[in-house]
Amino acid sequence: MADVQHVPGDPSHPRRQYFVFSDAGKPVYISADGPDAERFTTTFGVMQALISVFIDDGDKLRCINAGGTRITFLQRAPLYYACVSAWGEPESVTRTHLDYLHLQILSIVTAAQLRRIFERRTNFDLRRLLNGAEGFLSSLLERMELDLALSTSSLWCLRLDLGLRKRIAEALIPPSKKEILYVVLMARGRVVTLIRPRKHSVHPADIHILLNTVYAPSIVNAPAATSWIPMCLPKFNPSGFVNAYISFLSRPDSAPVHVSVAGSDSASQSIAPSSHSGSSSSPLPGSQPASPSRASFAESAPAEQPAYDDPQVVLACISAWYESATDRLAAEGSLGSLITACTTELRTEYSVAELGIPGLRHFVYKARAQVQVTMPLFEDPYEEVDERKRLVTLYQKLHDAIHARSGQGETLKLQYIKTEKESVMGWITQPFELYIALSPLLPKTAVINAANSVTRWIKREEGKLFLKDAPVF
């Protein structure tokens, strides 16, 4: 076990800046707003020149360290990405952020389209195609500040009674493989259930992109209860679109959201990029996605399939099935039970006090086989956002160390860090990863005992905390 003792806690977390630009130095996206954005535009050319110098030497520029600030670069030709951060997180963290930023852009303009566009015009202004999609990029960056499911490449499932989750999943199994690729039910920003083809797994990154699209402010505030949009799931197929049918089951802030992605394993046709702005309840591609705080159902179908050439035909089939599925959920009482659980926070959340472990303040547990995480509420002393950011950064340092993601000589099974405010430990085994925060007054033996107690509690509660044995079709 490696120790890092008495790391000072820096309460300052200045806003990170993110830049996206083409290999010709053309600006594509900047996270700053207003006058700040204008101030940074001259920076694009400097960054592009720096990257080009390294490329000419047959090398890649990964990062630049300047005092407490690091500039991290990611090359995904024909686009380049950069992040300026003074949070003190490992390089691998901001690199992951840039990778997700790239995937979100690919969900709007596919990799094949990008390649063709810049082959024809190297100085093309991509901002024209991304017009209206800036909100999706901004909401993703905001999520990444504190979302530990993103940091650990995992899904975060809603805590729910095992029997209720099973009944909901059974009601949502589609009758045909022809129209629907995935069925996802979400609530409170987490997955309730996910139904997929028997021989096809779902990459967590695609689900995060789907979640971010559904929960973007432009979707949340849309008047339409149902949307039908083309989008690319980059890990499934970076060169093609599927169509997503997104429907809110009810309107309260904490209610469930149903998202279905319709398609087939051969769905690969690239269609003209469509803005994700605007909302409509009519069956037209390009309508806006649903809100994060409302219940919705979404399905997606490939942009083109041999038997279903017309997207509106696919939409009609999916819409009819959705109506019958939600009628069944309502008739069986499952929908009402889910909405009640979502509107009663303590039914879907839990406190560290529930575990009854002295000195325990917070933890993150990842079930590696299911690629899912669970964690309690952020409570005292992490109620303030800045304290949460500090704790998340400590967790990220542990994660980076035990996985040797920043060039360390070897991976670690245990990593312990002690600050003036807490002790944190990362522990990895074959079935799980655990990141735990406790009082700094506890000795290491008590920290290890607490970690063992957490894993025993998780084992008892895993039926409620994780999505296991979800149905396939």
Describe the structure.
Its main location: membrane. Residues 359-462 form the FUZ/MON1/HPS1 third Longin domain. This is Vacuolar fusion protein MON1. InterPro entries: FUZ/MON1/HPS1_longin_1, FUZ/MON1/HPS1_longin_2, FUZ/MON1/HPS1_longin_3, Mon1. Residues 264-308 have low confidence and may be disordered. The protein has 3 domains: 17-144, Beta-Lactamase; 160-346, no CATH class; 349-465, Beta-Lactamase, CATH 3.30.450. Helix 2 runs antiparallel to helix 4 (134-144). The two termini are 44 Å apart. The chain has helices at 34-56, 91-106, 111-120, 134-144, 148-151, 162-171, 204-214, 217-220, 311-332, 334-343, 345-348, 385-403, 444-465, and strands spanning 2-7, 17-22, 27-30, 63-66, 69-76, 79-85, 155-156, 182-187, 190-195, 226-231, 242-250, 256-262, 295-302, 360-367, 372-374, 414-419, 423-428, 432-438. It contains 13 helices and 18 strands. It is an alpha+beta fold and 473 residues long. Helices cover 35% and strands 23% of the residues.
Entry keywords:
473 residues; alpha+beta; Beta-Lactamase; seven-stranded mixed beta sheet
- Sheet-strand content, in percent, reads 15-25%
Largest sheet: 7 strands, mixed
In total, the number of domains comes to: 3
**What oligomeric state do these chains adopt?**
single chain
Q: Measured on Cα atoms, how large is the radius of gyration?
A: 23 Å
Give the total of beta strands: 18
Helix amount: 25-40%
The strand order across the widest sheet is: 1-16-17-18-14-15-7
The chain-level mean pLDDT equals: 83
Q: Outline, from the CA principal axes?
A: globular
Report the total helices: 13
Distance between the termini: 44 Å
Structural class: alpha+beta
